[in-house]
Amino acid sequence: QAPAPATQKFQYTIQAKGRLADVEEFKAIVIRARPDGSIIRLRDVARVELGAETYGWYGMLNGKPAALLAVYQLPDANALDLAKGIRAQMERLAQRFPEDLTYGVTYDTTLYVETSIKEVLITLLQALGLVIFVVFVFLQDWRSTLIPAIAIPVSLIGTFAALLMMGFTINTISLFGLILAIGVVVDDAIVVVENVQRHMADGLEPREATRKAMEEVTGPVIATTLVLLAVFVPVAFTPGLTGRLFEQFAATIAVSVSLSSVNALTLSPALCASILRPPKAVQRGPLAWFESVIGATRKGYTRLVHRLVRMLAISMIAFAAVLGATGYLAKLLPTGFVPSEDRGGFFVDVRLPDGAALPRTAAVLSEVETILMKTPGVANVISVGGYSILASSVIPNGAFLVAVLEPWDERKDPALHLGAILKSVTPKLLAIPSATIIPFNIPPIPGLGTTGGFEFVLQDTQGRPPPELAAALGGLIVAANGQPEVSNVFSTFRANSPQIFVDVNRELAKTKGVDVSAIFEVLGANFGSYYVNDFNKFGRVYRVFIQAVGERRATPEDIGNVHVRNRDGEMIPLRSFVTVKPILGPETIERYNLFRSAIVNGVPAPGFASGQAIEAMERLGNSSLPQGYTYEWTGMALEEKKAAEAGSLVFILSIIFAY
User: Fold this and answer.
1) Residues with Cβ < 8 Å from 381, sequence gap 6 or more?
2) Short-list 525, 530, 556, 554, CA closest to 543
3) What is the DSSP letter of 524?
4) DSSP string over 388-423
5) Per-residue pLDDT averaged across 321-333, rounded?
6) What is the H or E stretch that residue 632 is in?
7) Residue 614 neighbours by CB distance under 10 Å
8) Cβ neighbours of residue 169 under 8 Å, at least 6 residues apart?
9) Which of 10, 135, 282, 586 could hold 287 in an S-S bridge, CB 3.0 to 4.6 Å?
10) What angle do CA 377, 381, 387 make, to 5 degrees?
11) pLDDT confidence of 367, banded at 50, 70, 90?
């Protein structure tokens, strides 16, 4: 930049009007100035308004318009802390809301987490009390009971510290591990106490009895700990989602068992030498009767072991028979991945016939909302018109609802349980003739599948037309619904949605001086929308779109009435070189592993497990699909298949390591 002249006295900043900021400024935009001085402005030829970016879908809460805001936690976030932070932030923001605007957290998945943790903590305390009671009944001495009881807090406190160092949290999985650990961590201490008592009954002093007992049980205590570790540690290294789910469970058990072993080899012997007294037999009362029963059982067991030791061949044959029966019965048991749960609500997917417009969808959605809001046990109904959760896309003939149930402690009546509510509301929803309405439970693991059942992917490996894929899909669905193991098999794939095909006579357009790209551009701007530029409002940047008014894009004939400018500046109607004809085609085309695909949803039939439903669908996939079609699994069914393969290997390895 050249320096200012030496005579320059002042320096100024030049400003000019940048982006337009309000509707009036856009209305005043000059479109054309005539030679006579008259001016045509944008408001003379268009309606300018401040509106929504899209009108393809809308939200409702209990039948009233609402702005729906969904918040999803990041992988490393803590759900409970996040929920508290969001509620606190919303309270601060609500102080600046207008008087007629309010907010509410109507669907909060962390309530299920909080309730689950609360129930698990209650179970944890119950397990603690039961374990101490059972130990006292068998040992029949408060001093002897105190030593194993001390092992529980010692092991659990150490486990909490280890979980903190490993970056784990207190959740339902780790708490389940602690419940199991309470019954396991006392075992080694009980072995030590009982062996010390046995030597004290022979006349030894507590210190000498403890020394002699530890010489005998140190090896077995270490061995039993290693056996348990050999069983639980491999679970943490299981690949896939199964390993991720049980990683903290296995770590909790492994750490608590290891600490209980250390406690049994250090603190328990010290306590035995310090506080134990020679045992005194209980002469009468329930404990005396229980001791007599245990004594008789002990003697009978001892005689049985003596006989089996002398009949080694028979014992080994019986052992082999038990192993064979175990494997046989394991194959007979139905398999499943995650059981269905009451997560405090259920979903409803609404699908009108292909080609239905959004106003028709809104009318049906209002009927569904009314039915759900009148259903006992339903607290709130969130609805989204124009979006199908099963199709995972914005479509005018689809809608999606979330029926939020009342808190669990207010639904103790069996008629208000989730299964009963679904059973009562389903016939009412199916009675609506103008739409296909599917209520279903929320998946037990959010994000893993949509319906909570299985997701079967039909794939076209030869790139055939969508109608052929639809025909193969229809045959598969009919055959699947005839299988006893599955029910409610359906798909959202449609190949006969009404569409309009615009056939452009490219040669004729060229002769009229019209570029083909201009034709498609004007079609998109009128019947879709066209992004022009941006404007500033409320301290943020928003987009400007142009589109034909609704009355000018309501029928197929309106396509021919649109004009496009040629190279000479003349406006040519599209009807001059465009032919419009109705066709049928798919609304959306999905691909799975690069192949054109259709998702098939279904649930196990009553009395059958998910593993049996998967086997039934695989039989159909292997026997009834036409040539060129194959199948894959996705969602929860895919994870169940992976878990079955890895679980069998982990089970076998655990047995081998244990022995």
Assistant:
1) 61, 62, 63, 369, 372, 373, 401, 402, 403, 404
2) 530
3) I
4) ETTTTEEEEEEEEEEEEEPPGGG--SGGGSHHHHHH
5) 80
6) strand 629-634
7) 25
8) 78, 163, 248
9) 282
10) 140
11) very high
Q: Which amino acid appears at position 47 of this protein?
A: R
Express each pLDDT in 236-250 by its tens digit.
777 766 777 778 888
Per the CB < 8 A criterion, the answer to whether 387 and 57 are in contact is yes
One-letter amino acid at 655 equals I
SS3 444: coil
All structural domains of the chain, each given as residue ranges with its CATH number in brackets, are 67-105 (no CATH), 112-280 (1.20.1640.10)
Q: What is the pLDDT of residues 23-63, one digit of tens each?
A: 898 999 998 888 888 899 999 999 999 888 888 889 999 98
In DSSP terms, 60 is beta-bridged to 65, 383
Which helix (H) or strand (E) element contains residue 71? none
CB 377 within 8 A of CB 362: no
Q: Return the ∠ at Cα 522 (arms to 518 and 525), rounded to 5°.
A: 140
pLDDT, mean of residues 536-553: 88
CA gap 551, 640 in Å, rounded? 52
- Residue range 491-527, pLDDT digits in tens: 888 888 888 999 999 999 899 899 999 999 999 999 9
Structure tokens at 114: 């909080």
Which of 322-331, 359-368, 580-589 has the largest mean confidence? 359-368
- CA distances to 331, 347, 479, 603, 618 from 484, rounded to whole Å, are 19, 25, 11, 11, 14
* One-letter identity of residue 292: S
Please tell me the distance from the alpha carbon of residue 236 to that of residue 246, in angstroms, as a whole number: 6
Helix axes 358-373, 418-430, angle to 10 degrees: 140
Two structure tokens written together for 339: 């059981």
DSSP SS3 for 180:
helix
- Report the predicted TM-score, pTM, of the whole model to 2 decimal places: 0.74
Task: Give the helix ranges, DSSP H, for 524-609.
Answer: 557-561
Q: Could you tell me if 59 and 384 are in contact, meaning their C-beta atoms sit under 8 angstroms apart? A: yes
Distance, in Å, from the CA atom of 255 to the CA atom of 207, rounded to the nearest integer, reads 30
